[in-house]
Amino acid sequence: MSESALRRIGPREFDFSRQVAVMAIVNRTPDSFYDRGATFALDRAVEAAQVAIAEGADWIDIGGARFAPGPPIPVDEEAGRVVPIVEALAGSGAVISVDTFQPEVARRAIDAGAHVINDTTGIHHPEMADVVAAGQATIVITHSLAAPRTPHPNPTYADVVAEVAAFLRARIDLARAHGVPEERIVIDPGHDLNKNTLHSLELTRRLDEIAAIGPPLLVALSNKDFVGESLGHRDRRDRLAGSLAAAVYCIGRGARIVRVHNVRETVDAVRMVEAIEGWREPAFLEHNTPGGAS
What we know:
Layout: E1 6-9, E2 12-15, E3 21-27, H1 42-54, E4 59-63, H2 75-88, E5 95-99, H3 103-112, E6 116-119, H4 127-134, E7 138-142, H5 160-177, E8 185-188, H6 197-205, H7 207-211, E9 218-219, H8 225-231, H9 240-252, E10 257-260, H10 263-277
Parallel strand pairs: 3-4, 3-10, 4-5, 5-6, 6-7, 7-8, 9-10
Antiparallel strand pairs: 1-2
Helix pairs in contact: 2-3, 3-4, 6-8, 9-10
């Protein structure tokens, strides 16, 4: 890891040379990829976020619009979905991010207390960088090819890793040119976003090449189609083991933030990796110790 390993993000300080942050997904959408609208109601969304924090999540990522193609969602409607959750989680101690590509939604979210904007379109609207810079927030820059909410059938790459890396470097330069310092940038290669399963697997195998770009690396693998297709027609609810395996593999290749649906299980997997690496002490010592169990 580079000198950017030490980060203050919102209320939390991370040493990404020896720490992995778990980002919990809370989607306030009626058509969400995984929970199919189970947390669309405001009280259900706030409760889900609070449960995730209790289960060990370091970070809550709030979404008000799917990445998938579809009609545009008005700014007022999207902001009305996410801002009340941001406000409800004030003082929770967790990093709060909002998943949006709309600069005005980002502005309102930051004003309400969001610490991070997670832009899965890779700053499609350059004004997003201005909003983040003015709000002193962190931005997650994600690789994707299509314009927001539009399809991109049959994506092709000569070298998916090289092209994703070039895109991310260019967007980092864009963000910095608009006033966002590198210490407030996180990158995400965008598994499955305008990519097929072979592309996502190649990105995973060669993830160290993306990590070498420098900023902390986020991976959003949880229950995605490349996991299901790799294992064989697995429903989204039956991809946990594959998702955990992919997350642990990515941590070994430099990922330091994992965006997930299944918080408790992922926290256990991540903390186990940290213990094996010697980055953290075991929670307690008893087995084959003086006075302990044999």
